[in-house]
Amino acid sequence: MVDLLLRHDLPLLRGVRAEDLQGLDIRCHLSRLSAWETLFQQSDAAREVCFLVSGALMAIHWTEDGREIIFTRFQTGDHFGELAALDGGARSLAVVARDESQVLVLERDSFLRLIDRLPVVRDRLLQSLVARIRVLTQRNLELVTFSVEQRLRSYLVSIFFERGRLHPGGVIEDMPTHSEIAASIGANREIVSRVLSQLRRDGLIRTGRRRIELRDPGRLAGEAA
C-alpha cells in the first residue's frame, strides 16, 4: 500500500519516504473511470481523500433547479475530498471524469494518520486550503462585480496561464466546451458563444473544435479587469 501511495510523485506527498510511513497502516487503491463516469455524488457520505493520477476530472455542484456549476478542473497530482475527511461531513460537490482517468483513493483513517504524523504534509494541506479560499473569494467578487464578458476574459487568461501558454500563439488543444465554460463562470452557453465570437472577430483569439489559440494576451488580460 505504501508503495502504491508513493509511486506517483504526488505534490502533497513529495519528499515523503516509505520509512516515514512505517506503522501507519496505509490503505489505498486505484480506481479507473471512463469518460463522464462519476467518482462520487454531491452529498455522498464517502470520506476518502483522492488524488488524480491521470486523465481529467471536474468538481460540479448541482443546484436545486438542476443547473450545473463547475467549480474546478483538477490537474494531474491534485488531491481532493479532504474536507469530508477532516470534518466527517457529506461531499459538497460531485466529481466527474472529463476523460478516461485514474484516481488513487486513500482511506480516511490513513489520511488522518498521515497528516498527524508528518508536519510537512499537514502544512501543504493547509496551504492548499488557503489557496482554495482565495480562489473562491476572487470568483465571488467576479460574479458580483464583473460582466459576463469580463468573467470570460478572466477565465481565458487563467486557463492559458495555468497551462503555461499565456503568450502570443499559445494554444490549448483540449479546451472546455462552451457549456462547460458557461457553467464555470455563471453564464449561459449562448452568451459565452457570442462573446467568444466577438473576441475572435476582434483578433484576440482564434478558435477551432476544442482548440483555442491566443493571439493578443495583452488586450485580453487588459480588458478583463
From TrEMBL:
Residues 146-218 form the HTH crp-type domain. It comes from the Bacteria. Keywords: DNA-binding, Transcription, Transcription regulation. Residues 12-132 form the Cyclic nucleotide-binding domain. This is Crp/Fnr family transcriptional regulator. Pfam families: cNMP_binding, HTH_Crp_2. PANTHER family: CRP FAMILY TRANSCRIPTIONAL REGULATORY PROTEIN, REGULATORY PROTEIN YEIL. The lineage of its organism: Bacteria, Pseudomonadati, Pseudomonadota, Alphaproteobacteria, Rhodobacterales. The keyword Protease does not apply.
